[in-house]
Amino acid sequence: MEKLEQVYEGKAKKVFKTDDPKKFILSYKDDATAFNGKKKGTIVGKGVVNNKMSNFFFQKLEKEGIPTIYLEELNDRDTLVKAVEIVPLEVIVRNVTAGSFSKRMGIEEGKELLHPIVEFSYKSDPLDDPFINDDYATALGLATKEEVETIKDYARKVNEYLCKHFKSVGIRLVDFKLEFGRYDGKIILADEISPDTMRLWDYETNEKLDKDRFRRDLGNVEDAYHEVMRRLGLEK
Ligand code: UDP
Asked: Keyword set for this entry (predicted)?
């Protein structure tokens, strides 16, 4: 399957048409941004890591009964996916306090929550992805009530699977972001699952193994991404 016209260029990926209108090719870049594009940089090899890690988890999640965009990995950076219409919600799942939650609630990072939280932001660069709730999403027609329920159900199931998998390799899944799309009128998991979109802390030392190393200038960003790949058995 070949890349035709580029339909979209995001911060971390490009999207291309193919000769099948129901299939796109995602191409993962090394470009890194934070704080809604205000900080820019490169994480060498990140595109390859994120492509492979996302595809690994999408295949696992399909087996757990969660439909995803994944079709076929074409090479190190490119993957054939189902062409979806993205639901303009950032679906965030939290297990441990961190980031914007800690700031908003005035709670230090690293506190285990009594149960996982699923929350929504409205995907909008000019508005800096404002925090919204289910009523905003349905009242503004961003998603139907049924879609919101499906999204929350899938998000909780993804969390259960990922928590277990990461725990088995000594990593705490602090929080992460998912995006969903519509395909044949059904909600499926879209976007990516990678250290760009998750907070991953070493269980023993709490060392950060994710994009916070880039956001907060902690150094060894590439090493952290490769460490996660090694622990997942995806790299030597
Ligand atoms: N996240 C993301 N993209 C965004 C916002 C958040 O991938 O545009 C991820 C982020 O990496 C973290 C989780 O979602 O794992 C929760 O992020 P938070 O709301 O704390 O925002 P942040 O502090 O990253 O701005």
From this structure: ATP-binding, Ligase, Nucleotide-binding, Purine biosynthesis
135 contact partners, CB below 8 Å, separation of at least 6? none
Q: Which of 175, 193, 228 to mutate to test the pocket of ligand 1 (most atoms within 8 A of CB)?
A: 175
pLDDT along the chain (236 residues), means of 10: 95 98 98 95 98 98 98 98 98 98 98 98 96 98 98 98 98 98 98 98 98 98 98 97
pTM of whole model > 0.85? yes
Tokens 């979109």 sit at which residue?
Answer: 197
Provide the 3-class DSSP secondary structure of residue 81.
strand
